Amino acid sequence: MQNGFGPGNCRHRRRLQLKVMNKKALPFITILLLIVAFLAGLKLTQKNQGTATPTPTPEKPSEATVTPINYPETVGGFLVTDKEICLQDGKPVIYYFGSSGCPHCQWESPVVKKAVDKFKDLVSFHNNMDSSADQEIFSQYGDINPGYIPFLVFGCKYARLGSGETAGEVKEIENLSALLCKLTEGKPVSVCDPLKEVISGIK
Question: Domain boundaries in the chain?
Answer without folding.
Answer: 1-49, 55-200
